[in-house]
Amino acid sequence: MNSYHLDHLQYLETEAIHVMREVAAEFERPALLFSGGKDSICMLRLAEKAFRPADIPMPFLNIETGHEFPELIEFRDRRAKELGAKLIVRTVDDAIARGLATASASETSRNRLQIPVLLGAIEEFRFDCCIGGARRDEEKARAKERFFSFRDGFGQWDPKNQRPEIWNLYNARLSPGENMRVFPLSNWTEMDVWEYIRREKLSVPSIYFSHERECFRRGGQWLPIPPPHSENGHPDPYAGARPKPNEKRANLIVRVRTIADMISTGMIESRADSVDDIVAEIAAARVTERGTRADDKSSEAAMEDRKKAGYF
C-alpha cells in the first residue's frame, strides 16, 4: 500500500507546477501575467516552487486600464521588486494616445480596450506564451479553456478549435505569429485559492479585507466612487462611472472578491478582516465570485466575445 498521499491542495499545486515547468521547457519567450490579484499571487508562489533556487525564468506582464485601485498597483510593484523580477507594464491610456485603441462614447469599462494593448505587448516582446491565472469555475467562457489555450496568428481564440490534452500531455507546437495562453490554475476554485493563500501565508492587497469606502448603488450592486476629476482640460476618464443624482450613496464596510478596475469591481458588504474570515464567508456565499463584476453583466456572452478577440 502506498503511504504517500497528496491532499486536495497538494494535488492542485503539483498539477500547476507541472504545467509551469512544461511552459519553461517548451517555449522560448514566455511571460507571466501579474496584476497583483489573488490568483496571480498564487501563481507567483507556484513559480517560486517550480523554479527556485534559480530566478523565475520569465518576466511579469501587466496591462493597466488606467482605472486601477491604488492599493493594487502598490502591491504589484512591491512584489515584483521583492522577487527581483522584471515587470513590464503597458497601458490603455498610452494605446489611446497612440491611436491603437479607441473607446466608444457609450463605453464605460476599458476591458475591451485591453485587447489591443495585450496583443501589442505580445508582438513587441515576441512572447510565444502568456501564463494567466484564469480558472474554469469563474464563468462559462473560461470553463471552455484548456490548460494550453491556442491562439492564432491574430491572437484570437476559437473554443471549437483547441487541442486535446489526454494524459496531461500538452501540444505546444506553434507556427510563426501564433501564441499560447496557459492557465495552471484551471482546476482551482475560489475556495482553493484562499485556502492556498492561508496555507502558504501569502500577502494580498488590503482591499480584499473589510475597509470603509464610499460607494454608490447601481445595477443591484455597490460600486466604488472614483477619485475626483482634476480640472485640467482633459475629459473625465471616469465619465459614466460616477453616481447619478438619483443613485444611492453610502459609506460602507466593504471588500472585494474579484478585482477588475474601479469602474467594474463590485464591492460586497463584509466584516471579513482575515483570511480565515474570507474562507468562512466564501463557504456560505450564494453569489458567484464574478457575480460582483459589472463588466460581465452586459451580456452572458461578454467574456467569450472578448476572449475570441484576444482577451486574457
Description:
- The chain has helices at residues 8-26, 38-51, 70-82, 92-97, 114-125, 190-200, 275-284, 302-309; strands at 30-33, 60-64, 87-91, 129-131, 148-151, 179-182, 211-218, 221-224, 249-255, 268-269.
- With 312 residues, it is an alpha/beta fold.
- It folds into 2 domains: 8-188 and 301-309, HUPs (Rossmann fold, 3-Layer(aba) Sandwich); 192-296, no CATH class.
- The longest helix is centred in the N-terminal third of the chain and has 19 residues, at 8-26.
- The chain starts with 7 loop residues before the first helix and ends with a helix.
What's the helix and strand layout?
Blueprint: H1 8-26, E1 30-33, H2 38-51, E2 60-64, H3 70-82, E3 87-91, H4 92-97, H5 114-125, E4 129-131, E5 148-151, E6 179-182, H6 190-200, E7 211-218, E8 221-224, E9 249-255, E10 268-269, H7 275-284, H8 302-309
Parallel strand pairs: 1-2, 1-4, 2-3, 4-6
Antiparallel strand pairs: 5-6, 7-8, 7-9, 9-10
